[in-house]
Amino acid sequence: MQKEMLIQKSKELLWLPFTQMQDYEADPLVIEKGEGVMLYDTEGKSYYDGYSSLWLNVHGHKKKELDDAIKAQLDKVAHTTLLGAANRPAIELAERLVQLTPEKLKRVFYSDSGAEAVEIGLKIAFQYWRNKGFHEKTKFVTVTNGYHGDTVGAISVGAVDIFHTTYKPLMFDSYKIPFPTIYRNEVVDHKEIRDQSLYELEKVLSGNGQEIAAVIMEGMVQGAGGMHIMPEGYLKGVERLCKEYDVLLIVDEVATGFGRTGKMFAVEHEEVEPDIMMIAKGITGGYLPIAATMTTEKIYDAFYADYTELKTFFHGHSYTGNQLGCAVALANLDIFEKDHVIEDVEKKAAFVREQLNSLKSLSHVGDIRQLGLMIGIELVADKQSKQPFPWTKRVGYQTTLKMRELGMLSRPLGDTIVFMPPYASSYEDLKAMIAIMEQAIMEVTSKLSVST
Ligand code: PMP
What lines the ligand 1 site, CB under 6 Å? Predict the structure, then answer.
């Protein structure tokens, strides 16, 4: 198909996720290929992949070891079902995941996306208590601004207004407690912010613990909710309260897992051991849709019985445990080990932190939040008062559109610019991407300052 036709057909036939198609039609983009940290459109124009193709491509595109792993697996078999029959890459990957994740997590339930891994985690937590005879433990506690994917269960425990409000009548109720957000908090002391939020959690657990199955939250950083980082000791405090009130702790590491925050998993920052943990995105280095819900042996045991007791976990997807996906995930983990990727992320994160200093002085950069290579740059109308821009101005969107013109792709979260580079980015690449963001922010916000 000719490139003009591809663009035309993309407008006629596709319905893109999280995209107002009117925007897309005005500025269509068709990606044709990738190489390292660069992506190329049908015109041959190159772009830095500044969002790791939605936070997952960690070693860059066309990574030889990953390509080779898929080709080698293709010579054996592409896919077989995991319903009642295991396969070699799924078993070998499970062993590696159990070794890598916190000690308590011993069982791996595969699926194909982060949201599915979350649905599975919620259903396992719910059924765990039923199987143990606690039928009243049916509710979940989650935090304001949390995000766990887009399926109905996942949005029921999510709380990002713009994504979730429309679907409220479809969702089940869960308890929402305030996330300890630091930016725009009247309280300045991080410890106080942390303790206030923990106090709110304890109030819910002490009053309603008997009907609560689990607390669910992201690991250390709220991603889609705007890149907000938990104050030190918060997640550890949540773990302590969950134990105290006999409630399961579910940590969603879909976005934060596989090195993104500078540790293999974000829970390592506080030595937290969840009862259930979801992983996806970086698990295959951004190649194929594999996800997993990890649980403890104690939870697994509660499902182990004959069919007469209906304790079986009735859940599974056609592509679960896909052999190509598991094979490439294994190769991905080999790269982490061989190339000391976590140490590399730590070094690059320190470099980025220093480089981003130049953005701090820009008049509309309100806050820069960073943990590892997970970064949000919040743009505001007024720095002093932290007043946001009117949302109708779509400053974040305009800025990423300008970045695209300048040769870098990302997607904003409201007016927060997401910077999630592939770990494979060189120091020069990182510098170039920061320069593009700086220029785009300056150009877009200076025009706005004049017109508002
Ligand atoms: N949980 C978190 C924390 C996420 O950030 C995401 C996706 N950004 C999801 C779940 C959903 O993952 P997926 O898009 O693979 O369904």
Answer: 113-115, 118, 147-149, 218, 223-224, 252, 254-255, 280
Mutation choice for ligand 1 from 18, 145, 148, CB with most ligand atoms inside 8 A: 148
Please indicate, yes or no, whether residues 107 and 13 belong to a single structural domain of this protein.
no
Report the complex ipTM: 0.99
CATH number at residue 323: 3.40.640.10
- Give the containing element (helix H, strand E) for 192: helix 190-208
The parent domain of residue 264 ranges over 67-338
- Report the separation in Å between the CA atom of 286 and the middle of ligand 1, taken as the mean of its atom positions: 13
Give backbone dihedrals phi and psi of 38, rounded to 5 degrees, phi first. -105, 145
316 among annotated binding-site residues:
yes
Question: Measuring CA to CA, which residue among 297, 214, 229 is closest to residue 269?
Answer: 229
One pLDDT digit (tens) per residue for the chain, 452 residues: 888 999 999 999 999 999 999 999 999 999 999 999 999 999 999 999 999 999 999 999 999 999 999 999 999 999 999 999 999 999 999 999 999 999 999 999 999 999 999 999 999 999 999 999 999 999 999 999 999 999 999 999 999 988 889 999 999 999 999 999 999 999 999 999 999 999 999 999 999 999 999 999 999 999 999 999 999 999 999 999 999 999 999 999 999 999 999 999 999 999 999 999 999 999 999 999 999 999 999 999 999 998 878 899 999 999 999 999 999 999 999 999 999 999 999 999 999 999 999 999 999 999 999 999 999 999 999 999 999 999 999 999 999 999 999 999 999 999 999 999 999 999 999 999 999 999 999 999 998 865 54
First vs last Cα of the chain: how many Å apart?
A: 44
Q: Which of 285, 311, 338 is the last residue of a domain?
A: 338
Three-state DSSP class for 367? strand
Global pTM value: 0.97
Half-sphere exposure for 119 (CA within 13 Å, toward CB): 20
Tally of structural domains, the chain: 2
